[in-house]
Amino acid sequence: MVSPVAVFRILGDLAVEIGGREADPGPHKQRLVLAMLLCRANCVVSTDLLTDAVWGDDPPRTAHKNLHVYVSSLRQLLRPAGGPDRIVHRSGGYVMRVETEELDSLRFREFVRAARMSSALAGDHQGSKVPGASEHAARLLGEALDLWRGSMLADLADSPAIRAEADAWALRRVTACEDWAEAAVDVGRAAAVADRVAELIGAHPLRERLRAVQMIALHRSGRRTEALAGYDEYRRLLAAELGLDVGPVVQNLYRSLLAEGAGESDPTARTSTGISPGAGTGTGAGSGRDTVPKPRRQTWPQTWQTWPQAPQMVGGSVGGGAMSNASAGRPRLLLPPDLHDFTGRAQHAAELAETVGVRRCSVYLCGPLGVGKTALAVRTAHRLAADFPDGCLLIRMRRSDGSPRPVTSLLADLCRVTGTAIPQVDDEDDAIALWQAEILGRSLLLVLDDVAAASGLQPLLPGPGGSVAIVTTRRELPGIGSLHRMELGAFSPAEALDLLARHLTGPRVANERGAAERIVAAVGLLPLTVRLVGGKLAALRHLSLSAYAARLEHSGSLLDELAVGETTVRPLLGAWWQGLVPQARAGLRALSRLPGPVFTLAEASGVLGLSLDEAARALESLIEQRELDSPLAEVTAHAVLYELPLLSRLYAREQDQPEPAVASVAEVPSG
C-alpha cells in the first residue's frame, strides 16, 4: 500500500506529518481550528462552531476575518498534500477533506466497525458462525485501541468545544474496550482481560457492561470469589450513587455463578455479557445472548470425498439388461451405499426430494469441500429409487487427480452402466445426440458428481422426459439456467454434535458438551472433518474430549489430525490445489499468511503487495471461483470482510513455497 502524503493525529495531542516529516500546525488558535475540522472530518463545520472552539463565549468583532486567515495559513501548510482542495469553503462553514488512512480517528472508527461485523459472525448473525471471527475481532479492536496516545487533544483541552468532542470520543474508546474485552475472553484471554478491565473500572465504575465482562473474565481465570465480590461492590455502588438496582443481565450472571458453585455447569461457557455496545449504568441494559456457533456457508473447494474409485453396484449387475431389471420391478442402483451415520440436512433433503421426485426437475447442489453434497445426493437417490424404474446411477465427473474427465469418457461410462448400445462414432456431437436420443422415454436418476464446469455437464443432462439429474459441484454453473440451484454450507453446531456423538460410545459428548462444541468448531463444522475426528476419538477412547479440543486448538498442523488410518483429507486438498491456476495458488498462499481466516481489504492488500483496487479485483476473482467468501452482504467497500476457509488456509500455508513467475495475482482468470 502507498503511504499517505499527510497524516493527522487527534487521539492524543494534535500532530501533523506531511511527506513523512512532522509539521508545525501553527499558533494555538490556528491549531484549534485544525483540530475542530479534524474532529468532524469530511463534514461541514460551521463558522459559529469554529468561532466557539477558538474564542468560546467572547469572540472578537474580527472573528470571521481571523478564521479566514487561519484557514488560509492551514491551506498553505497543507499545500504539499493537496492544500487548496483539503479545506473547502461551503455555505456556512468549511470542510476538511481527509482519507481514512490519513486520520487516526477515522482509522479507529473503521477498525471498530470491521471488528463489530466480525464479532457478529462469531456470535449469532442470521444463524451463522465463522470460525476465527472472534480472533479477528479482538485483533482489530487491539489495533484500534493502540491508535490512542492519551486523552484526545489533551493539549487543546482549554477549549470547551474541543473538550466536548473529546468527551464523546472517550465514550467511543471505552465502548471499544468493552468490545475488545468480550472478544478476547471469547478466545481464551480471560486473565489478561480481568487485569485490564480492572483498570478501566477504576475510571468507569458504573459501566454495567464492563462489570459483566469482568465477572466472566474472573470466573474463567479461576477467580470466582473475586467475581462474586465484584458484583457485590457494583450493587452497593449503584444503590449509593444512583439509587438503582443491578440490571437483569448482571443479576442473572451472578445467580449463575452461585449455581455453578453448587455444582452446576459453567455458567459463562456459552454466554457473553449480552449488553449492547454503549450500554452504561442502570437496570436492564441488555439481555443474555447465546454464543454457541451457528451454521454458515463455507467456501472451500469440493473434490471427491469418501466414495470408492468407481461407483459400487447395489442391487444389480453392470452388464446389459437394464430394461429387464426395470421390467422385473427392481430398479438398478449403481450408487455408493447410503452413509450409516448420515446426520441433519432435513430441510435440504425434503427440498431435494420434492424437486427431483415430484416436480421432476434437475438440481445442482453447490458447496465447498466436506459439506456432504455427494452424501445428500446419494441418500436422496436411494430414497427415490422406486420412482425411477430404469435406474439410479452415480457418475464421477473428475479423475482421481482432480482434472475433469472428457465428455467421450463420461458418455462411454453412461452407456456401459445403463446397458445402452449406441454406434461407435468419431464425432463428439454425434455421440451426444445418440445418448440423448437413447434416454428419451426412460426414467433415470443420474447423480453427476463433482462437476468442474458447465461445458462438461451440458451434454450429459437429460432432456425432456422422465429422467432427471442431481449435480454436485463446488462452483457456480453459469449458463445452466434450467437446473434448480441449492447451496449447502457447514453443519449447525447441533448437527455437528449429533454426528460426533454417533461415532463415540457412551455419554462422552453429553458429559463434555463444552469440549465437544470446541472440537466441532475447531474443524469448521464440516461433516467430513467431524466424521474424521469422530473416527479418531472412537479409537482413542482413553483421550478426554477436553484434552483433544485443546490439542486441536493448539495444533501446529491441524491437517495431521484430520486422518484416521489411511483416510485423510490431504489427497482431497491436493487434488483441489493442483486444479487451481498458478495465480490463484499464489494469491491463496499470500492470504494464508494473515493471522486469521477473516480479513479486510487493507490487510489483503498488504500481503498481496497490491494497491487497494488491484487487491479488490483479485479477491473478487477468487470469490467468483468460490475459493474465498465474503461472510456479510450489503456492506461498503471499505468495511467488507473476506474469509479464507479453514482447510484452504491450512493447506495453502503448507504450500507456501514460491512457484515459477506468473502473471500478477490481480489477473486471476474467472473461469
Task: Characterize the structure shown.
There is one protein chain. With 671 residues, the chain is an alpha/beta fold. The chain has a six-stranded parallel β-sheet, sandwiched between helices. Strands 1-2-3 form a three-stranded antiparallel β-sheet, with no helix packed on it. The chain has a three-stranded antiparallel β-sheet with strand order 4-6-5. It is globular. 43% of the residues are buried.
Briefly characterize the structure.
With 671 residues, the protein is of the alpha/beta class.
What strand line-up does the widest sheet have? Answer: 9-11-12-13-10-14
Span between termini: 28 Å
Shape, principal axes of CA atoms: globular
The count of helical stretches stands at 28
Topology of this structure?
Layout: E1 6-9, E2 15-18, E3 21-23, H1 28-39, E4 44-46, H2 47-55, H3 63-77, H4 83-86, E5 87-90, E6 93-96, H5 104-122, H6 133-146, H7 160-186, H8 190-203, H9 208-220, H10 224-241, H11 248-261, E7 271-272, E8 289-290, H12 322-327, E9 333-334, H13 346-358, E10 363-366, H14 373-383, E11 392-396, H15 407-418, H16 428-439, E12 445-451, H17 454-457, E13 468-473, E14 484-487, H18 493-503, H19 508-511, H20 513-522, H21 527-539, H22 545-553, H23 558-561, E15 563-564, E16 567-568, H24 570-578, H25 582-591, E17 598-600, H26 601-608, H27 612-624, E18 641-643, H28 646-654
Parallel strand pairs: 9-11, 10-13, 10-14, 11-12, 12-13
Antiparallel strand pairs: 1-2, 2-3, 4-6, 5-6, 7-8, 15-16, 17-18
Helix pairs in contact: 1-2, 1-3, 5-6, 6-7, 7-8, 7-9, 8-9, 9-10, 9-11, 10-11, 13-14, 15-16, 18-20, 18-21, 20-22, 24-28, 25-28, 26-27
